[in-house]
Amino acid sequence: MDFRTLLSRTAPAALPATGLLLSGCGLRGSHHALDPAGPQAGAIGSLWWLLLVVSAVVFVVVMTALVLALTRYHETPDRENLPAQAHRTVMGWVAGGVGVTVLILFVFLVATLLAERRIAAIDADPEALEISVIGRQWWWEIQYENAAPWLTATTANEIHIPVGRPVHLKLNSADVIHSFWVPSLGGKRDLIPGHTNRLSIQADRAGVFEGQCAEFCGHQHAHMRIIVVAQPPEEFEAWLEQQRQPAREPQTEGEIRGREVFLASDCIMCHSIRGTTAMSQVGPDLTHLAGRRTLAAGVLPNTRGHLGGWILDPQGIKPGNRMPRHTFPAEQFHPLLDYLGSLE
Amino acid sequence: MNPEGPRSAAVLPTAGPRAADARASHHDLDRVWSPPEGLYGWLTTTSHTQIGRRFIVTAFIFFLLGGILAALMRLQLSHAESGFLSPDRYNQIFTMHGVTMMFLFAVPIMEGFGIYLIPLMVGTRNLAFPRLNSFGYFTYLIGGILLYAALLLDIGPDAGWFAYLPLAGPEFSPGHRMDFYAEIITFLEISALVGAVEIIVTVFKLRAPGMTLNRMPLFVWALLVTSFMIVFAMPSVEMASAYLILERLAGTHFFDPAAGGDPMLWQHAFWFFGHPEVYIIFIPATGMVASIVVTFSQRQMFGYPAVILALITTGFVGFGLWVHHMFATGLPSLGMSFFAAASMMIAIPSGIQVFCWIATLWTGRPRLRVPLWFVLGFVFLFVMGGLTGVMLGAVPFNLQVHDTYFVVAHFHYVLIGGAVFPLFGGFYYWFPKMTGRMLNERLGLWNFWLMFIGFNVTFFPMHELGFRGMPRRVYTYLESTGWEPLNLLASCGAAVLAVGVLLFVINVLWSRARGQAAGDNPWGADTLEWTTTSPPPNYNFHFQPVVTDRYPGWTRGPDSPVVVGLKDDAHEVLVTTTLDAVPDHRTTFPPHSIWPFLTAVAVAVIFFGLIFTPWAIPAGAVLAMAMLILWFWPKHHVLHRGHEEDAP
User: Fold this and answer.
1) How many C-beta atoms lie closer than 10 Å to residue A77's C-beta?
2) What is the model's pLDDT at position A149?
3) What is the pLDDT of residue B21?
4) Which residues of A227-257 are buried (b: 16+ CB within 10 A; e: fewer)?
5) Per the CB < 8 Å rule, is A74 touching B366?
6) Best mutation site among A50, A137, A138, A190 for testing chain B: the one with the most B CBs within 10 Å?
7) Cβ–Cβ of B400/A82 closer than 8 Å?
8) Which of A17, A182, B30, B643 lies at a CB distance of 3.0 to 4.6 Å from A211, suitable for a disulfide?
9) To the nearest whole angstrom, how far is the Cα of A101 from the nearest Cα of chain B?
């Protein structure tokens, strides 16, 4: 961190680039590649600062040479022939420049390999938590698998992880290629149909880290966001335990009526609510819908109003997405919202 | 004059007798090499200056169209959650922006410059395979028009210019949008391939006597390397897009994992073309830079052999980088390390070139005219883009910024900075040769500075947007992301950039009519094209020059040696040896013809028809074959006229 503080004081003078990068509020944001929250993003961040500083120096040197070449005193030259002495001198500079280039590239390569090693350090950690991420147009299915199938917790668009513990993401796609990317936690990895990719992440501090699909995947590529919630281990375990449970039974009359509406509607053609007869796997699992922070893959905050708007007009909010429009009479719609809002 | 038989091997250069009969032959040459008048002439011409100019103008129009698409995207992205464009439109627009800039602008315009300049630079009368050249232009034109027609009819391709499977496949892109992509890209690339073949043969076999390989202008070297890259890279995308055609038309499942296929196959085949493509665009630009640097520093190229070796090295190493587009796909890390090393290594030949250009300016006497300003802008932008390119070679860093606006910034720095700026320098530099008039210098400076400032304001902030998590190819973004201010800034920069380009268009239109007359060699340039008139006559040179050094533009005088004995009443050109350009034999080029145009139409019928029905293959093939038969139908009077007239 000291290094970066030092840079933020000195670098802007050297290169406008750095000034812009550091002056913004970006470094304090919850989704910035240079605001690392874990060792993977940290290693990449350090690698970047090395690349930036060396590149900035190279840039300044080359531009200085160019300006000097244009402004220095020029004796009248013979167009075709250069005096041997002058030729030798300039050739020396050119050769020296090439030599330094090679050296710098070698340093970059070694730094790259070292950073890769740091990032891969947790790849084989047996203590790691394994989470399955399945990319779908245009949302993420998240599964906390368990040897006992009934203890598998399924959710969507929101990954909870324990702070300080390596996490292995198992990445698959159900349709087209997607790419998982949460900048504060590290680099991205594609989710490719027919392939199982892996990505290791780790958060060293609690927080909510945002990201989004990074491989063009069709109409709503822009609205395929994901959040990672890093929690203290106990909090995480409690959350996971709760996610494994079937849906909360409806309590009030409205909620009971809402469940009836849900199970009688075509919602069940796509969605499942564990503990009910709705078991379709096409859309996100709604068992603990009310516990999530967002709707529609990070597009809307999870409030009653937004949920209602989403059900009535999903095509207006995410044009082209797979969820069709629905109409409910008010006497059904409010109980439905009551019920969905109760699924903590 | 003592002409030998057409196939004999000795046409000896002699010191030039410029006699009265030479003036007579001028008239004959003009009659023989001039294309017919009117529309028929337009469709049948085989003149490389006409076709080259046409490539340049057409590609520039596509550049403007691609620019309009870019402006629409910048408008859409200037505000969070803007409703200006629907995702459906936006996806077509960004796809067509990429397709236009890569397939319809960058490669054709570079080849267009090659087609126009190379016969002049190597001192011959026309490009090799002149009818193929005509065919190549019409395939390009028809392909481009079909793609834009599709876009206007709301059936433009919408899965990205890279068309990743399975998104571009039949299941996830139903309808005809991606059929247009698959068919027309396959069709269009024929044009790039034939252009490359023509350039290679022209460079190897039609150089003026005495222009040994080590006297060849660097622009010619650059186009030679580029053409070889095209010959090796384009078949890869042709294969990939042909597979895509089959996948969509015949359900072949090459890319479908459920049927044993693999989406990665597409990525390898596409990027094996896609990465060299970047160098196919960049290397000709370095040739332009070399020409401009030499002319405006009035100094021979420093390290000429080193620059050539750098060009060739770039050509080879450029084929070893494709996997850096695929670092995020989960390939084994040892394998990726090789590609990381290669991605960094490519900076060495580029560095050599930059150092040699600076050394040339250093040892020369730079004259700051508009073409040189564009070259200076180029060095600034290209070094910056090159450095971010080296960074992208570092695998872990790449995984962070891959497919984000950081990469968008990077490749616009290398492609606009590295190719479009030299290209504009090239416009200012060669416009006098092509039209006989100079472009306006003052407008040129405004043009340069607006483009330079506009470019940086547009693309520099995108680096930071990438760090902040903004992925590419998003039609909008949420306000909560905080990406709006920098996007708005970028959009404002784009407006400035657009004004700069507009000034160029105005400058061209104004100067073409009223520009200052240029004369043969207004810049004091060193290459052969400047030793003939501006614009050059249809036969390029009254007498084909004999070259005695690397800088004929500087050293040739009225008494310099020329080739005599070429027929002035036939399309006759001198063929020389590949290495040393020793006269070898003479050959007669075919005259203008309508069949290349009709063949291009017939081939277009195949590919366009395939969008709708597989029956287009037999129907179009029969048609194309008929056209080819007519194209190659032996015409006794043309082929044998030489023999008859030579007979004692």
Assistant:
1) 17
2) 86
3) 54
4) bbbbbeeeebeebbeebbeebbebeeebbeb
5) yes
6) A190
7) no
8) A182
9) 7
Cβ contact A186–B355 (<8 Å): no
Over residues B343-368, the mean pLDDT reads: 94
Q: Global pTM?
A: 0.93
Model pLDDT, residue A84: 86
* Mutate which: B399, B480, B486, vs A, most A CBs within 10 A: B399
pLDDT of residue B6: 39
A167-173 and A129-136 as β-strands: parallel, antiparallel, unpaired?
A: parallel
Point out the residue among A52, A55, A112 whose CB comes nearest to the CB of B340: A112
Mutation for A interface: B79, B161, B355, most A CBs within 10 A: B355
Is B335 near chain A, with CB under 8 Å?
Answer: no
Instruction: Report CA-CA distances (Å) from B44 to B100, B178, B620.
Output: 26, 33, 21
CA distance B604 to B607: 5
C-alpha to C-alpha distances, B312 to B236, B317, B419, nearest whole angstrom: 20, 9, 18
Q: Which residue has the tokens 């240079």?
A: A34
CB B494 within 8 A of CB B70: yes
pLDDT given for residue B634 in this prediction: 80
Mutation to test the B interface, candidates A221, A317, A318, most B Cβ within 10 Å:
A221
The closest alpha carbon to B355, from A105, A56, A91, A102, belongs to A91
Amino acid at B160: G
**What is the arithmetic mean of pLDDT over B355-364?**
94
- Using the Cβ of B181 and the Cβ atoms of chain A, whether some distance falls under 8 Å is answered with no
pLDDT tens per residue across all 344 residues of chain A: 444 444 444 443 344 444 344 434 333 346 889 989 999 999 999 999 999 999 999 999 999 999 999 998 777 667 877 888 888 999 999 999 999 999 999 999 999 999 999 999 999 999 999 999 999 999 999 999 988 888 999 999 999 999 999 999 999 999 999 999 999 999 999 999 999 999 999 999 999 999 999 999 999 999 999 999 999 999 999 999 999 999 999 999 999 999 999 999 999 999 999 999 999 999 999 999 999 999 999 999 999 999 999 999 999 999 999 999 999 999 999 999 999 999 99
Q: Is the pLDDT of residue B388 over 60?
A: yes
Closest Cβ opposite residue A77 in set B328, B363, B469 = B363
Map residue B238 onto helix, strand or coil. helix
Residue B382's pLDDT is 96
Question: Within an 8 Å CB–CB cutoff, is residue B482 touching chain A?
Answer: yes
Structure confidence at residue B22 (pLDDT): 58
Cβ(A48)–Cβ(A34) under 8 Å? yes
Hey, is the C-beta of B337 within 8 angstroms of any chain A C-beta? yes
Distance linking the first and last C-alpha atoms of chain A = 40
Chain A residues with CB-CB distance to B340 below 8 A: 109, 112
Contacts of A137 in chain B (CB under 8 A): 172
CA B174 to CA B167: how far, in whole Å? Answer: 10
Positive or negative torsion for Cα B375, B376, B381, B384: positive
CA pair distance B403, B408, nearest whole angstrom: 8
CA B261 vs CA A193, B172, B257, B258: distances in Å? 10, 16, 5, 7
Q: Which of B364, B390, B404 is closest, CB to CB, to A214?
A: B404
Residues 6+ apart with CB under 8 A from A196: A170, A171, A172
DSSP A239-303: HHHHHHSPPPPP-SHHHHHHHHHHHHSGGGGT-B-BTBS-B--SS---TTGGGSSEETTTTEE--
Q: How far is B228 from chain A (nearest CA, A)?
A: 26
pLDDT at position B17 is: 47
Work out the minimum CA distance from A20 to partner chain B, whole angstroms.
Answer: 8
Task: Report the candidate in B544, B523, B540 with the shortest Cα–Cα distance to residue B117.
Answer: B540
B490 touches chain A (CB under 8 A): no
